Amino acid sequence: MPADTPKIPGVPSSTVPPVEEPTTPTTPPEPKPDQAEPEVRTATGTPADLPRGRAQQGEYLTTAQGARLTDTDHSLKAGRRGPILLQDHHFREKITHFDHERIPERVVHARGAGAHGVFRATGAASSITRAQFLQKDVETPVFVRFSTVLGSRGSADTVRDTRGFATKFYTEEGTFDLVGNNIPVFFIQDAIKFPDVVHAAKPHPDREIPQAQSAHDTFWDFVSLHTEATAHTMWNMSDRGIPRSYRMMEGFGVHTFRVVNAEGDTALVKFHWKPRLGVHSLVWEEAQLINGFDPDFHRRDLADAIEAGAYPEWDLGVQVFPDTPEQVFEGIDLLDPTKIVPEELAPVQIIGTMVLNANPTNFFAETEQVAFHPGHLVPGIDVTDDPLLQGRLFSYLDTQLTRLGGPNFGQIPINRPHAPVNDMFRDGFHQHAVHTGVAPYKPNSLDAGCPFMAGVTEGAFVDLPVEVPAAKKEREVSRSFDDHYTQVRQFYLSLSEIEQDHVAYAYTFELGKCYEQSIKERQLQILANIDTGLCEKVAAGLGLPAPKPTVEVSDLPQSPALAQVGKTWPVQGRLIGIVADDTTDVDQVLAAVQAVDAADCVPLVVAPHGGMLGGVVPISRTFLTARSIEFDAVILAAAPADKRVQILVDETFRHQKTLAAWGPGAAALEGLAAPGVVVADDPQTAVTQVLDLLGTHRVWQRDTL
Ligand code: HDE
């Protein structure tokens, strides 16, 4: 800035000394250990190929064209207090780019979190499929995106909703996408109903509320009229609708797929992801609190676990059915996406394991721009005529053309196949390739006929010559899709009593948020048809009469695999709060921290202030920043007379989590004698007992909700 800049009459000159420009570039400081970024890893590069991730790499700030800049803090104006000049190309370029930073969010599944990983096949599937990535010991890089369905990109994580579980396998034979959910059934049997169910479930079009919820009139209006939604709705009202963590969810391909082996034999399969940590959920009150206290709970949980090296793992399994012309197994129509095949009838056979071991380097570039598509198939895996799947085969590419701005989004690094691509597609918005030659067409002679068509022996994807039964054109589904209740009753009766209570509570909550009496009554009628006991509980909560069933629903054998409660699981990665204050014996707190750490769980010391406890133990949370929802269990090493600690204890108790104490901490648990409330003699014993109790996720015997 010239020193002789004229003064503005009446305004004192700035006392801030002018900055010397350009500033001398200095090497940025090394990140502190707890700020160290995760290992850089993308679909297209390994850590060695990629620059370590600071946003500013170069010496000087430049324009998008590479011209060095002297100033990026002030626009070019006609005088200090005058208007901005149109000629300020740097201002216009910077603001224009910023104005276009956002792309349309996904019409559904807008809110998500992603991770990189690797899939290793056991080879067990080689008898049913020739897919290369499913052969013994083959390792395939993957990218997974978990999501909620209804909420906007910035909505909270722990809403009651279905979760997306989409996996991109970058196989040597091309990309295979398994675009599934954490619930094995869907609301509709025909893709043409998708806009209806989504319009009904999304916020009301007039006020755009409620956000990311199904607890409103339009959702229940639709599902109470459209009874094929009953199965999915009941799964949503069960604990599956509020998972504890993405790491603790099952995943389902939902539809039946057709596989073909090297001999050309076909089979029908349903894909399942089984989390090594078990399937666990939040309780509803906890989920609601989290939405306020930590709306990024699931996103944070996934990223933290991966950064800490507690890599989440899932086994991939298949249920296998003979490929008969009817495509029916034990009376269940395999083309009906509102039905499951109970695992007791067709066991899930494990064919590989996926480990998620790296966080995305850049959320937008990877998690936001990743494009999944059920039509991304590889040789050995094909689709069936499930009318929902058939419609999906159209929808994904179509939506991505708009969302990702044209037909070349396959060139975005996260979407690039790892197999060589020779597609002869040319031009279009955002074309990044500089294609050479003049003959991007086939047949040609100018490129000597290249590229050639592959046969089965060269690993081509061959559309299976499946018979289509002689039929007339009609807007109908098979009559075998008509039963909307029997399996829903089976699901409800297969749950433990605690889970059944949660279902009743969820329906009562959601219908209690509706205004229209007729909608509540219609939904109660559906519940009466499924189970009169369930209907009576919900009706009592709503203060309405319980209707009598209008259809007779037969009883199927229960499927214990559907229940979550009653099993024991590994506890790695669980978060354990340890409450202490300045009067606590620091060595004992340290012993507890070490014991928790040794069990691969995360100790979080909670104290009245930040910093260090006794100069020895780092404090992770203060009474101000801690809330019970963050912890899977709480151990008290002190009993500070602070209301916030009282709330912490009360909520932990209410939400059926383990509470433990030793020494002076025992006073905080006075009057709480109940299962899962442990007073131990020393920190090690307290931690051992907590870890033991955590194996069942919650203390289910404590009926506190
Ligand atoms: Fe999707 N779905 N879907 N869906 N879906 C999308 O694709 C659609 C369905 C699923 O993390 C969209 O790129 C139709 C079932 C996941 O990027 C869209 C129908 C299942 C994701 C779309 C369904 C899914 C999507 C929105 C009825 C479980 C998130 C943005 C026929 C098996 C993927 C996009 C991600 C996303 C259409 C039903 C799973 C609009 C028409 C059933 C996990 O194309």
Automatic annotation (TrEMBL):
The active site is at H109, N181. It catalyses: 2 H2O2 = O2 + 2 H2O. Heme binds at R106, R145, F194, R392, Y396, R403. GO terms for molecular function: catalase activity; heme binding; metal ion binding. There is a cross-link at H373-Y396 (3'-histidyl-3-tyrosine (His-Tyr)). GO terms for cellular component: cytosol. Residues 62-450 form the Catalase core domain. Residues 1-54 are annotated as: Disordered. SMART domains: Catalase (SM01060). Residues 11-24 have a biased composition (Low complexity). Residues 31-40 have a biased composition (Basic and acidic residues). One of its GO terms (biological process) is hydrogen peroxide catabolic process. PROSITE patterns: CATALASE_1, CATALASE_2, CATALASE_3. Pfam families: Catalase, Catalase-rel, Catalase_C. Its EC number is 1.11.1.6. Its cofactor is heme. Keywords: Heme, Hydrogen peroxide, Iron, Metal-binding, Oxidoreductase, Peroxidase. Decomposes hydrogen peroxide into water and oxygen; serves to protect cells from the toxic effects of hydrogen peroxide. Belongs to the catalase family. HPII subfamily. This is Catalase. It comes from Rhodococcus pyridinivorans.
